[in-house]
UniProtKB/TrEMBL annotation:
Subcellular location: Membrane
This protein's UniProt keywords: ATP-binding, Disulfide bond, EGF-like domain, Glycoprotein, Kinase, Lectin, Membrane, Nucleotide-binding, Receptor, Serine/threonine-protein kinase, Signal, Transferase, Transmembrane, Transmembrane helix
Residues annotated as transmembrane: 453-477
Enzyme Commission no: 2.7.11.1
Short name of one Pfam family: B_lectin
Name recorded for this polypeptide: Receptor-like serine/threonine-protein kinase
Residue positions binding ATP: K546
Organism of origin: Musa troglodytarum (fe'i banana)
Length: 788
């Protein structure tokens, strides 16, 4: 892979942490002009009231038509006063709505998108917001008492605006095409591991391939900042700033600006003059003042997987300026879909090696072109004529690459990562048909003879008696289903699992998907979890839980887990895709959560914002409510802790790992069993020989809720330092003294929202149904709780 371009250090710009903090506060609303949107207001797609404007009229928020007929709409934010208009943010962009749906601002100021039947299909913001506004910055905010509770700037799609920050764990994803707003083939990811990367993606799964541009911050915390002066840089936590675009700074007073990850994979910074708008255009290359990478055709070269910048069997060409990348088909090929060039090119002649005749073909030379992969033969010490001959005589050879007067590679379809440019010192020899007939490999007379024979056979079958037809059909069905069973006789799925619509995997399939169980994501009491990739399945990224022990109890837990999770479907639970029960192998296959566990965002260098943490608390609570009260068979998790809460791409909390769950029958509300769980989260009931109910999960959730509020571990000892008090005792003592603010004393966002902090804390420490409250009962249970 080509080396990523090196970032540029801004000269003489090393800032103190205090000054950097001030510099990064780019999302404040105090200096912006805005007016509240009236609660109860409704927008209707396709009507005269389909959007709200910012005070200046420069931005609009509402229903944006995605086609010329205005039959499909996106919930979006766009530049309203430019021509053409330009979308800068959208919700549910993979599923535009038809005219008729409404976007409402109910009395609780939560944005709510409803379909024609009145069913809510999308919402944004907490239920306690009191106002909404479209700002002149292009940011849509929901507020309460002047504080932002939700903002579109925190959930970018493919565009950043001046004043916007992309934090670690966030990303931009390009549109599929300029006319198709759905998620595209490229991503700008601020990785939690410490890199800012541009990566190609697989469609439709979104699987990431090798990055083609990156900035490595050496594991330091960072943010990508597009400041209100028009500069774009990476700000490290130590105060260092790394420039990203190296563009001349254009005044935001004189120019509208946006930086967009375009459908061709290039991250471009655009300007649009606020005067002379009639001659300006967002798509003009003059208006693209900077970009990374400098030449995506040159820089994007994966390790072999994926098609590259353009689609399979095509090649990439660029002039090195700010204009769009050009994807072209080689001679003898045409685009599968000219409107969606990313789908690639196909041969104008269908191959048929059974009737292959080299005399029907020529090789057309293309200088300075190459497809670096897909080669299957390599010859040395040959001349160009020999290279041509070797390819012509081989039916599988689609292209031959000749280099250095002596090297020859034969390549087969599909061709990937194709590119053309002066930096490529190679000659491509493209195999094409001489005749340009529809099928030079399959003469029409042969087609007619075979078609006539099939018609004759069909006529005979139709003329036979129903008895012989039935026998013939039965033989075909037996053959089909017999061949399918033949490849899967080494393992038998549990007959009771078919009703749960789970996929049955073979052990070999999962071994290949995980590259021999190479990348371990985590380890638990019953086994390890590995990352995997299934290229043939829509959920490409998977997490495979491999149960290492083969004791009877382990197999029982495995069966319980498959049965329980197979019946659970909730947005705050990790989805089980399938399982393997082959011989001695017991494995569970889950959807992969790229952001990992909640623990990494509570106790590491990168902390989630207060409102993100509040939404995570709500999400976990909803998931537990579903497990306890809404499942057809209620489930006690028994091991609620941050490690077992995963975060999806949008930082939505997803409860995982029901391997320790004890199922409750519909007529059973409690059960006695051995102690389960993790030290620090185990409820007092476990130590008192009391009946175990769903309240043990409530206690564990309460402990974890305190950790989320305070971003501090419940049990924590620093080596070489005095042991800190147990979090629940410390929190309870301060809460009794009326000093709940000390629990979040270093969190400015939480301190600005003390009402919600106190609600969260009181629900943990004094709620009558919570096991945590029971542990601190003034009548004496506190000692029992502390002894646990």
């Amino acid at each position: 892979m080509a080396s990523p371009p090196s970032p540029h250090l801004l000269p003489s710009l090393i800032l103190t942490p205090t000054f950097l903090l001030v510099l990064l506060l780019t999302q404040t609303i105090t200096a912006q002009s805005y007016s509240n949107i009236t609660q109860g207001t409704t927008l209707t797609a396709g009507s005269s009231t389909s959007s709200w404007l910012s005070p200046s009229g420069d931005f609009a928020f509402g229903f944006y038509p995605t086609d010329a007929q205005a039959s499909l709409f996106l919930v979006a934010i766009w530049f309203e006063s430019t021509s053409p208009k330009a979308v800068v943010w959208s919700a549910k962009r993979d599923a535009p709505v038809r005219s008729g749906p409404t976007l409402q601002l109910p009395s609780d100021a939560r944005l709510s998108l409803k379909d024609e039947g009145g069913n809510e299909v999308w919402s944004a913001g907490p239920a306690n917001a009191s106002a909404a506004a479209v700002l002149d910055s292009g940011n849509v905010v929901l507020t309460a008492s002047g504080d932002i509770l939700w903002q579109s700037f925190a959930f970018p799609t493919d565009t950043l605006l001046p004043g916007q920050v992309l934090g670690q764990g966030s990303d931009l994803r390009s549109q599929l095409t300029d006319s198709d707003f759905s998620g595209g083939r490229f991503e700008l990811a601020a990785q939690t591991s410490g890199e800012l990367q541009l990566l190609p993606l697989a469609i439709p799964s979104g699987n990431q391939y090798d990055p083609y541009w990156s900035i490595d911050t050496n594991g330091s915390g960072f943010q990508l900042v597009y400041n209100e002066s028009g500069s774009i840089y990476v700000a490290l936590t130590n105060g260092t700033l790394l420039n990203v675009t190296m563009a001349s700074v254009y005044s935001t007073e004189n120019f509208f600006q946006r930086t967009r990850l375009d459908p061709d994979g290039v991250f471009r910074q655009y300007i649009y003059p606020k005067n002379g708008r009639a001659t300006a255009s967002w798509s003009s290359k003059w208006n693209a003042v900077a970009k990374v990478p400098a030449d995506i055709c040159h820089d994007l070269q994966s390790s072999g997987a994926g098609s590259g910048t353009c689609g399979f069997n095509s090649y990439c060409s660029s002039g090195g300026d700010q204009s769009e990348v050009d994807c072209l088909c080689p001679p003898g090929y045409s685009f599968i879909d000219p409107e969606r060039k990313y789908k690639g090119c196909e041969q104008d002649f269908p191959p048929n090696c059974k009737r292959y005749d080299p005399a029907h073909f020529n090789l057309i030379p293309m200088d300075n072109a190459d497809w670096p992969f897909s080669d299957y033969e390599h010859y040395t010490n040959v001349n160009e004529d020999q290279c041509r001959q070797y390819c012509l005589e081989d039916c599988l050879c689609a292209v031959a690459i000749f280099w250095d007067g002596k090297e020859c590679w034969k390549k087969k379809l599909p061709l990937s990562n194709g590119k053309m440019g002066s930096y490529i010192d190679r000659r491509a020899l493209i195999k094409v048909s001489k005749t340009n007939n529809t099928s030079p490999l399959l003469p029409s007379v042969v087609v007619k003879k075979e078609r006539k024979a099939l018609i004759q056979i069909g006529a005979v079958l139709l003329g036979c008696s129903g008895f012989f037809n039935a026998i013939f059909i039965a033989l075909i069905i037996t053959k089909i289903f017999g061949s399918r069973r033949g490849g899967s006789q080494t393992f038998q799925p549990q007959s009771s699992m078919s009703e749960f619509n789970l996929r049955v995997f073979s052990y070999k399939e999962l071994e290949e998907a995980t590259d021999g169980f190479k990348e371990e994501l985590g380890r638990g009491a019953f086994g390890s979890v590995y990352k995997g990739v299934l290229s043939s399945y829509i959920s490409t990224n998977i997490a495979v839980k491999k149960l290492d022990r083969l004791l009877r109890e382990s197999e029982k837990e495995f069966i319980n887990e498959v049965r329980s999770i197979g019946q659970t479907h909730h947005k705050n639970l990790v989805k089980l895709i399938g399982y393997c029960n082959e011989g001695t192998h017991r494995l569970l296959v889950y959807e992969y959560m790229r952001n990992g566990s909640l623990m990494g965002f509570l106790f590491g260098d990168i902390k989630l914002h207060w409102q993100q943490r509040v939404q995570i608390i709500f999400g976990i609570a909803r998931g537990l409510l579903y497990l306890h009260d809404e499942c057809s068979t209620p489930i006690i998790h028994c091991d609620i802790k941050p490690q077992n809460v995963l975060l999806d791409d949008n930082f939505v909390a997803r409860i995982s790992d029901f391997g320790l769950a004890k199922l409750l029958r519909a007529d059973q509300t409690r059960t006695n069993t051995g102690i389960r769980g993790t030290r620090g989260y185990v409820a007092p009931e476990w130590f008192k020989s009391m009946a175990i109910t769903k309240k043990v999960d409530v206690y564990s959730f309460g402990v974890m809720m305190l950790e989320i509020i305070c971003c501090r571990k419940n049990l924590e000892t620093q080596i070489g330092e005095e042991e800190e008090p147990v979090l629940i005792y410390w929190a309870y003592d301060w809460y009794k003294d009326g000093r709940a603010d000390l629990l979040v004393e270093n969190d400015k966002e939480a301190l600005a929202d003390m009402e919600e902090v106190e609600v969260c804390e009181s629900s943990v420490l004094v709620h009558p149904r919570g096991s945590v409250a029971q542990a601190f009962d003034a009548e004496g249970d506190s000692d029992a709780g502390r002894s646990s």
